[in-house]
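Researcher: Last one for today. Full complex below.
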Amino acid sequence: MNGMYLRQRCLLAAGLCSAAFGAGAQAPASEATVARHVAEATRLAGSDLTALMVLCKPAPAARMTPAQGEAYLSKMINQPVPEPGRAFDNLYYVGAKWVSAWAITTPQGIILIDALNNKAEAATVIEGGMARLGLDPRQIRYVISTHGHGDHYGGANYLVERYRPRVVMSALDWTMTETKLEFESPLWDAPPKRDIAVSDGDKVTLGGTTVTMHITPGHTLGAISPTFEVKSNGTTHKVMLWGGTSFNFGKDIPRMNGYIESTRKMAKIVQEQGIDVMLSNHSSYDGSLPKLEAYRRQKGAEPNPFVMGTPAVLRALGVMGECAQAQRDRFLMQP
Ligand SMILES: [Zn+2]
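Model: Here's the assembly. Have a good evening.
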């Protein structure tokens, strides 16, 4: 049955069957379609993007229970804090081992992307890291929370009380944090009070640096994947920071389809704009920690290890999109 369907689609599309499926037409979900998406993800991942292949492992059909969530969060939070570091002339890592915080520096202040889990981390990891790098936390003008889960906003209230930055989140995720949190934990501080609510394409500009907010529904309905420019050795590079990676929302087909669509939307933008760096808000996906270490050891003008090139950024989005399609098909096959 599925074989016949596939043959008909391929005939209709005159040999462009894979392109036709890529454009939205789908074969009925089966073990074969799952395997095809995983194989394509594996091919796209090559040897450099294998960290993203964790997304191709079967995801649970239900969200974690509060008890499972506590155990997982404790384990993640209690890892040793990595060395903070510079990734580009104007971009610094001030995150924890599990969850990232990125500081974009400008002549008129700092834009911080994500605020970690709680005030203790904001104080020791963000402020502590900034101090070690010679950055002044009093210069933080904006805190962008990539999405409405506590590992990204938990330290925001502490920073707001101390430095009064504006807090940016998508309108959709502000509403989620005000109404029904998708995840709650005593290890996270309360969500910040609604401040700047952004929609797709909105921009935050400070000191000549513009951060564009692309809303990439999937991980949450209003996850922000910001794009911005950085400099290294006098060369400008373009960054896209993927704002929500894992499929931790359970069996939710529209959410999976939204995620897949978001990878396609960002691939178009990456291609059009020549984005050549992809970052994440969790260091396990983008290899930030070993890249920071490699950058730290460099002498002279060697290539910046964070610069992947546009084809690799497109492959990374392809891996995420193919794994999302594999997972959607697994969910579709479940009763
Ligand atoms: Zn999340």
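Residues 147, 149, 219, 244 surround zinc ion (CB under 6 Å). Confidence is low (pLDDT under 50) at residues 1-23.
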